[in-house]
């Protein structure tokens, strides 16, 4: 129907995690935190053994569905997905480094999941335990295909990590069942998922098994979305108007789940942010595997709308709490923002898939922005507290008070959530970080992220081991050393010059290498030569403190400025600057002092500047006055990286500051 048949586009394959060993001062902390704290803590939470956190019920639901325990289903209709994402995170940890004790826990959970699967391959604890007669009757709201997709991702990841097929066979049987239910053939449901996820998962299953049925099914779900008449409305009528959620609008608000138009006809990002980004990830995957150029063009069109008109400076997306959704172009409020952690993770997934197809630095720039700011900021440094929502301005007095518009904003991270999608999503992304650093396309090895360690890759038949060393993101000195290059034939090494960087230099074995129109391709400096062991490429990207301004149509930031240094966005926090951050004004000629503080927040580079602050103590009295605001007093202010805020207790925070 679309594209060029089943001819694959030239695109990069996934980099196995056991071929990338991360050794990086910044990221080792977080990866080890995921292994030592986050995954064990989440296992306890999923088993309802964290007394101070909201109960999960997720493991118990599977035990009930498996006939191992008696009881009622507990939690959200999509509770199974928490288990799947946790298992996927475990799989990535095991792929990077074997851990027999963790593997034994995972194997035991997989045994329970297999017992919970029904004879026809169906697997969903909500509909097995609570509503056994209602399978596939409410696709708009009930997340069956979403949960299926996450379990498929877990099955593929666990097989890749351990070689064990049990969960892969479970999810393959489930995918076979789904294939028997859905399609345009007589007797099948011509429907699609309310929360996109199955599409990208089926492509992963196809890549792991080689079974083209799964790719065709994934493509079907992409192509079927938005066809008329609305399948959701048809099902709603068949249910006599019965809805799962009290609001009951998911079947009729077609923009919310991006089913208002076929995906190729959608012009701008709209609706639930996570759903859109998972959909785009699946679209990019299907485009790459089928050679569908129209689908890739649709991906680019929506990418451009997101990053040029609807993305926060932190890489957060989804500006409004109503529907956890995109709103309209340039609507980027800071204090009522939603910017769900999962949405930034979805943006990273989408960016990575676009990089695999087209190594253009714009995709890596956004991937880096979301990773270093919103995603890392979504988890506390203790690994046990999480942000669901990532605001850019917080006044704790407004949170949880009578003004309901701030109900979704939390001034400190939470231990767990009734809807706990974000914590295991952070875990699985950080556990798989090695996948995002490099890609190989043709005879070129691309470096997208500056994260230290060694990678063993194959480039045009040449087995290459590359060692990366840096102190990123604190300074911009990056060294790439060729440890091994077997064939002795020429191949390309390409390094990204970040979009935020105004001045960069490059040397190869100490000799300067020009950065010009001939050597720069789509934001990457590419050097092709017969690389030899011991060859060293050194990149230096300057990291001055930079003032960032918004597009004039972003009302929330009119007259304001934000600070960025390297990939890191900075913010003011009450812990450093006292209350009433809105009174601070940054003169346009203020000079910045960036300095390393090893004892602060795990070691950061902070920024200090001489600023001005309103003399509120000199206000003449009353709520309003005919006299202008009193003068300013001099003050020294400190900015810290945005990701590190809210690790020192409750207080105000602001990314954007008034500028004089």
UniProtKB/TrEMBL annotation:
InterPro entries: 6-hairpin_glycosidase_sf, 6hp_glycosidase-like_sf, Beta-AFase-like, Beta-AFase-like_GH127_C, Beta-AFase-like_GH127_cat, Beta-AFase-like_GH127_middle
Domain Non-reducing end beta-L-arabinofuranosidase-like GH127 middle intervals: 444-543
Coiled-coil intervals: none
GO BP annotations, alphabetical order: carbohydrate metabolic process
Segments forming domain Non-reducing end beta-L-arabinofuranosidase-like GH127 C-terminal: 545-658
SUPFAM superfamilies in alphabetical order: Six-hairpin glycosidases (SSF48208)
Domain Non-reducing end beta-L-arabinofuranosidase-like GH127 catalytic: 19-435
Any Pfam family the entry gives: Glyco_hydro127C
PANTHER family for this protein: DUF1680 DOMAIN PROTEIN (AFU_ORTHOLOGUE AFUA_1G08910) (PTHR43465)
Name recorded for this polypeptide: DUF1680 family protein
Organism: Fontibacillus phaseoli
Lineage summary: Bacteria, Bacillati, Bacillota, Bacilli, Bacillales
């Amino acid at each position: 129907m679309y594209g060029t048949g089943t001819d694959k586009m030239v695109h990069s394959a996934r980099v196995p995690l056991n071929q990338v060993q991360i050794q990086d001062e910044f990221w080792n902390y977080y990866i080890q935190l995921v292994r030592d704290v986050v995954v064990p803590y989440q296992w306890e939470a999923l088993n309802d053994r964290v007394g101070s956190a909201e109960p999960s019920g997720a493991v118990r639901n599977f035990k009930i569905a498996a006939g191992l325990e008696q009881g009622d289903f507990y939690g959200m209709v999509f509770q199974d997905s928490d288990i799947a994402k946790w298992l996927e995170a475990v799989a990535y940890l095991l792929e990077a480094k074997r851990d027999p004790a963790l593997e034994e826990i995972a194997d035991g959970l997989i045994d329970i999941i297999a017992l919970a699967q029904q004879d026809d391959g169906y697997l969903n604890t909500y509909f097995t335990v609570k509503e056994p007669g209602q399978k596939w009757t409410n696709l708009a709201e009930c997340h069956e295909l979403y949960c299926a997709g996450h379990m498929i991702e877990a099955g593929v990841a666990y097989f890749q990590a351990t070689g064990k097929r049990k969960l892969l066979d479970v999810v393959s049987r489930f995918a076979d069942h789904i294939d028997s239910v859905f399609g345009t053939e007589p007797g099948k449901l011509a429907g699609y998922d309310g929360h996109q996820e199955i599409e990208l998962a089926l492509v992963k299953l196809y890549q792991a098994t080689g079974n083209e049925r799964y790719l065709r099914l994934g493509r079907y779900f992409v192509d079927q979305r938005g066809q008329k008449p609305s399948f959701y409305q048809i099902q709603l009528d068949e249910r006599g108007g019965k809805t799962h959620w009290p609001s009951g609008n998911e079947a009729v608000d077609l923009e919310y789940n991006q089913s208002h138009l076929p995906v190729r006809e959608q012009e701008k990002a709209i609706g639930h942010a996570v759903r859109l980004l998972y959909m785009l990830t699946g679209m990019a995957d299907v485009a790459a595997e089928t050679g569908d150029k129209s689908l890739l063009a649709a991906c680019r069109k929506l990418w451009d709308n997101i990053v040029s008109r609807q993305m926060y400076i932190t890489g957060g997306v989804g500006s409004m709490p109503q529907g956890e959704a995109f709103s309209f172009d340039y609507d980027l409020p800071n204090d009522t923002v939603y910017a769900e952690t999962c949405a930034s993770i979805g943006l990273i997934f989408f960016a990575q898939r676009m990089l695999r197809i087209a190594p253009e630095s714009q995709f890596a720039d956004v991937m880096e922005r979301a990773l270093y700011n919103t995603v890392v900021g979504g988890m506390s440094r203790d690994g046990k507290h999480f942000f669901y929502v990532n605001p850019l301005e917080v006044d704790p007095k407004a949170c949880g008070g009578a003004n309901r518009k701030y109900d979704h904003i939390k001034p400190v991270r939470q231990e767990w959530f009734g809807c706990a999608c974000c914590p295991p999503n952070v875990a699985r992304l950080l556990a798989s970080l090695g996948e995002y650093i490099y890609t190989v396309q043709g005879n070129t090895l691309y470096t997208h992220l500056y994260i230290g360690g060694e990678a063993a890759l194959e480039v045009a038949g040449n087995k290459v081991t590359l060692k990366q060393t840096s102190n990123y993101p604190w300074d911009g000195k990056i060294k790439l050393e060729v440890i091994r290059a077997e064939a002795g034939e020429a191949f390309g090494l390409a390094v990204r010059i970040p979009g935020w960087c105004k001045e960069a230099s490059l040397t190869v074995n100490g000799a300067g290498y020009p950065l010009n129109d001939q050597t720069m391709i789509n934001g990457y400096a590419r050097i092709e030569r017969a690389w030899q062991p011991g060859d060293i490429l050194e990149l230096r990207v300057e990291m001055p403190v930079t003032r960032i301004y918004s597009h004039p149509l972003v009302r929330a930031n009119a007259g304001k400025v934000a600070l960025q240094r390297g990939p890191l966005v900075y913010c003011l926090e009450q812990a450093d600057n006292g209350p009433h951050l809105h009174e601070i004004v940054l003169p346009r000629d203020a000079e910045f002092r960036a300095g390393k503080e090893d004892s602060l927040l795990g070691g950061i580079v902070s920024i200090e500047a001489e600023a001005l602050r309103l003399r509120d103590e000199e206000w003449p009295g009353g709520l309003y006055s005919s006299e202008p605001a009193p003068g300013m007093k001099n003050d020294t202010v400190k900015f810290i990286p945005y990701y590190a805020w809210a690790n020192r207790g409750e207080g105000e925070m602001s990314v954007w500051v008034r500028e004089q």
